[in-house]
Amino acid sequence: MSLLNNLNKKFNSDIKNTVTLSVRVTSEENAVLQEIADVVGCTRQDVIYQLISDYALPEWRNMKMGDENELTDSVEESNGVSYFLLNTNKTNSIVDHNIILEQGIAATFEDDYIGKMNRIKKGDVVFLYESGSGIVAYGTGSGKNIDESHPEKINHSSMRYQILSDFSLLDKSLAARDVKRILGNDIPFAQTLSRIKNGEVLYKHIKCDR
To answer: How far, in Å, CA of 47 to CA of 3, rounded?
Structure first.
């Protein structure tokens, strides 16, 4: 009954910064949604929103917090360079996303995540991934981590970053499905930072397209 309880508590709350989402369901599924809405006294949209809040978002958080010591962590490219995919955190903060792209840095935020920056060594290639768009930029790690002295100015308790050399914004983002096709394997796009197998293949593909 947690869904109904949460609906009863929240459906009248003032939800800001929302966007319209269209969902196709069967007639039977629509009837179920309407019946739940009738029981609580809300709308079908409220029910769908609560389902996302109760089930989809926790799963997304688990994906971000999941085991990032993936098999590819033990793989190093033949030239000694490692390749990483860094999520620009746009789903949490457009400010974070803009800072990363405007300043040409790789950055992680909050105490649970900033330690991941230590994995990027000098000369490693970092691809910047924007949720919903794909890889939008890339650059080379310096290996020198910098802790932001006033992270509270951007509503964080901590921020660690590296300045990327040879930083380049792509003219056209490389969609997630194309990244998977080029690499021939799945990528944990939702995770903060993940090391990717066959990264040199992706790097050469992007360089050739420029």
So the answer is: 8
Q: Which stretches of 41-184 are DSSP H helices?
A: 44-51, 57-65, 94-103, 176-183
109 in Cβ contact with 66 (< 8 Å): no
Pair type for strands 83-87 and 125-130: parallel
Burial class of residue 113, CB neighbours in 10 A (0-12, 13-18, 19+): buried
- Distance of CA 15 to CAs 4, 12, 42, 183, Å? 18, 9, 14, 40
Q: CA angle at residue 61 from 163 to 94, to 5 degrees?
A: 45
Put simply, whether the predicted model's pTM sits higher than 0.90 gets the answer no
| CA pair distance 200, 123, nearest whole angstrom | 13
Q: Give the end-to-end CA distance of the chain in Å, rounded to a whole number.
A: 54
155 Cβ contact partners less than 8 Å away, ≥ 6 residues apart: 93, 95
pLDDT in tens, 84-127: 999 999 988 999 999 999 999 999 999 989 999 999 999 999 99
CA distance 113 to 89: 11
Which tens digits make up the pLDDT trace of 59-90? 766 666 554 444 344 444 546 899 999 999 99
Which candidate, 150, 154, 151, places its Cα nearest to that of 93?
154
The torsion angles phi and psi of 149, rounded to 5 degrees, stand at -75, -25
